[in-house]
Design brief:
The protein is mainly beta and 511 residues long. It has 7 helices and 23 strands.
Length: 511
């Protein structure tokens, strides 16, 4: 049995390491706590009572002893459902089942032991929810059942942010995205704060885009165990942003094999025509497919969980109304059918006149027109081209080629955008010994998007062929080592060393 001195030496050593290696302690809290007090029927506290915590899914067991005040604490409790056992010589064993711990939650669980033989057991399967008196944080927890069973357009987990009190979704301005990411589902205003003032983390690791401060790591809903949205007075460990804290926890393996295979789809033939779609019903084909698999590597000790999701979207994007030549003749410069240039207008300055006169054959072609006038500043177009026909020699060859290749023949076009995405995640949870646990998590997402109209900062051309092709790849890896120490003076202390990283690649290409 280690001495008290050796344990304190270990505590001091761990504290020194954490101070000297701040780069390792970067993660934010992704677990919960269970606290409580053990007493006898008269209300007198019971010290040195044994408290055992068992994860009902994985079978992993932890235990501690109550201190002189009868209090106990379990820190770094992975979100899940637990059985808690209280026992002390001379008292009946008390077992409380189905104790649920959510992410960042502090569960207050007190117990009163009845006098009797230790072989006797008092079992409690449910009790009224406990009020958290240890924290002033305000927020809500979204569990995996809500994530998987509630309607979720495009299967974006962060859409559930909009269901929380004080959270307002930001809508587009109708003409595209004025700011990059402003139409992303993670762009929400919390309690009137800025849309870029929120902090996102996955399994305690940083999941923010450092450029626009929006989430880049977005695990598929089938791999999400739960996530918590803290909207006010959150603890100092979340001191990065002023808006809200969104902490996502992904699923881990259990002692039983579990998983799923799925496909969600939408199709054009299932959609109704929008009233404003003047060019007809636009194409809309969406397929999201994938699967998950989790289970034990070694029962009660080591577990794995993997997921994959592919996304293939083809969406017709209706353009703005574009002013175009009405007939095939007008596309070649023949406006005689609409009265030519009798409506007015002329050459504004000599620069334009010199450009016309400088084109090979243009001056001669104009002179051949009956009643024409040589181009000069202030001369009306109807005097230069009295027949209403612009000779090909006077047309800019670049503009003429552009007209034939890119300007549509209808005022409204519906080009098709593409969205191809492949995401997979891997998680490994391992119990090293009774006091140490290790977790490794890796996230990979490859995204290829073709947008027919470039809408970034209102750059967007309103004719197809001038959009952009964006290739994005995001990766995150988290390595977490948790070491818990229990002794007579410190009921339970823990040291978590997290090494996490994030890689992102953006390769914009203009088409």
């Amino acid at each position: 049995m280690p001495s008290l001195r050796s344990r304190w030496n270990a505590v001091c050593f761990a504290a020194i390491i954490s101070l000297l290696s701040p780069c390792l302690v970067r993660g934010q809290g992704a677990t919960g706590r269970i606290v409580g007090r053990v007493a006898d029927p008269t209300g007198a506290v019971l010290s040195h009572a044994k408290v055992t915590l068992t994860n009902q899914a994985t079978g992993i067991i932890r235990d501690t002893l109550t201190n002189d005040s009868g209090d106990y604490t379990f820190v770094e409790v992975v979100p899940g459902t637990y059985t808690v056992e209280f026992e002390l010589t001379g008292f009946k064993k008390n077992v409380q089942k189905n104790v649920t711990v959510d992410v960042n939650q502090v569960v207050s669980l007190n117990s009163t032991l009845q006098i009797g033989a230790s072989q006797e057991t008092v079992e409690v399967t449910s009790e009224a929810p406990q009020v958290d008196t240890t924290s002033t944080q305000l927020g809500a927890v979204i569990n995996d059942r809500s994530v998987n069973e509630l309607p979720l357009n495009s299967r974006d987990t962060y859409q559930f942010l909009q269901l929380q009190p004080g959270v307002q979704a930001q809508l587009g301005n109708g003409n595209g995205s004025l700011f990059y990411g402003s139409q992303d589902t993670g762009s929400v205003s919390v309690n009137g704060g800025r849309t870029r003032a929120n902090n996102f983390s996955v399994n305690g690791g940083d999941a923010n885009d450092q450029f626009v401060n929006l989430p880049t790591v977005q695990p598929t809903p089938d791999s999400v165990e739960e996530f918590r949205v803290i909207t006010n007075t959150f603890d100092a460990e979340y001191g990065r942003n002023s808006g809200s804290v969104v902490n996502v926890i992904t699923k881990s393996g259990t002692n039983s094999i579990h998983g799923d295979v799925y496909e969600y789809f939408r199709n054009t033939i299932l959609d109704a025509k929008n009233y404003f779609d003047l060019a007809g019903r636009p194409q809309w084909n969406q397929n999201q497919y994938g699967g998950t698999l989790g289970g034990p590597i070694k029962k009660d000790r080591s577990f794995f969980f993997v997921s994959y999701e592919g996304r293939r979207i083809r969406e017709g994007i209706t353009s703005q109304v574009v002013g175009i030549p009405a007939t095939a003749a007008e596309r070649t410069g023949d406006f005689s059918g609409v009265g030519g240039f009798a409506g007015g207008g002329g050459i504004a300055n000599q620069f334009v006149a010199d450009a016309l006169n400088g084109r090979t054959g243009c001056t001669a072609a104009i002179a051949a027109l009956p009643g024409s006038t040589t181009p000069a500043a202030g001369v009306a177009w109807s005097s230069i081209f009295p027949t209403g026909v612009i000779p090909s020699q006077c047309q800019d060859p670049v503009a003429a080629s552009f007209m034939q290749q890119f300007v549509p023949t209808t005022p409204v076009t519906v080009p098709v955008s593409t969205d191809n995405e492949d995401q997979f995640t891997v998680r490994w949870d391992h119990k090293i010994n009774e006091r140490q646990n290790f977790t490794a998590y890796y996230y990979f997402n490859d995204l290829r998007q073709l947008q027919p109209f470039d809408e970034f900062e209102q750059a967007g051309g309103n004719v197809p062929g001038f959009g952009n092709l964006n290739n994005n790849r995001f990766q995150q890896w988290n390595l977490t080592h948790t070491w818990t120490i229990t002794n007579a003076l410190v009921n339970e202390a823990h040291f978590t060393y997290m090494r996490e990283g994030q890689l992102g690649f953006l390769k914009p290409q203009t088409t």
